[in-house]
Write a structure and sequence with these properties.
CATH topology: Farnesyl Diphosphate Synthase
Largest sheet: 2 strands, antiparallel
Order of helices and strands: HHHHEEHHHHHHHHHHH
Strand content: under 5%
CATH architecture: Orthogonal Bundle
CATH class: Mainly Alpha
Number of strands: 2
Structural class: mainly alpha
Number of helices: 15
Helix content: over 70%
Shape: globular
Strand order of the largest sheet: 1-2
Number of domains: 1
Length: 289
Amino acid sequence: MALVQARVERALERALPAADHAPQRLHRALRYAVLGGGKRVRPMLAFAAGELAGAAPERLDAAACAVELVHAYSLVHDDLPCMDDDVLRRGKPTVHVEFDEATALLAGDALQSLAFEALAAGGLADDPAVQVEMLRMLAVASGTRGMAGGQAIDLAAVGASLTLPELEFMHILKTGALIRTAVALGARCGKPLARGEPDRLDRYAKCVGLAFQVVDDVLDAEAPTATLGKTAGKDAARGKPTYVSLLGVARAKALAQELRGEAHAALAGFGGRAARLGDLADFIVTREF
């Protein structure tokens, strides 16, 4: 994991415009938002799925950067005063605090564009039609049927009560869509999978995507701000529905373990090719930050 994190950091460094290129302030904001922080879970999932499919690391660099740049843009926008209005991210001031709101808005816009530029680079798949499909998948995961749609539901749900299926649907879009796409893009950088394998891989990704959010909700309730690198307890303070508010901490933790088991079950039959994906399912559920 550490080797992949370091590799992705170097790839992101190359993908981002230099800080001294005009417009300098905007480019500094992009680099501030992306580099030197984050667990890089989505890139690690892309690399792990690519390993399963025998993908070349150079192809995975582009896919991993694309999903991480979309993720970074979403964090910049989510932290804005018109959204979650947060002042801390990854242990440092959020982009709109460090720079200003207009720069943060433009930085998010530019990061999203840069993600598609990275994914459009030549040679990511043997069949050009597969690469076009990869672009479509990232677009869907980022839009109203994915991350943006989930965020809209999340904002509308403040102060409301959601059922467990409603909460799950929200997070399948908001958090899960990009995680599932990270896995799918990594796999498509390699050799075609056997019949039925893409569905099993997607089932794995759906489970770890939901587990990621469940654990996030638990950490928001239990971990201090210094550990999280972002404001702790803010979801509860704003009255946002979470797995903890709906189920309680103990049941939420049990659900995360159930999803971990389902993720491992989905990998059965892949053998050693899925070892990294199994490790990541464990990491997502047992992480403490």
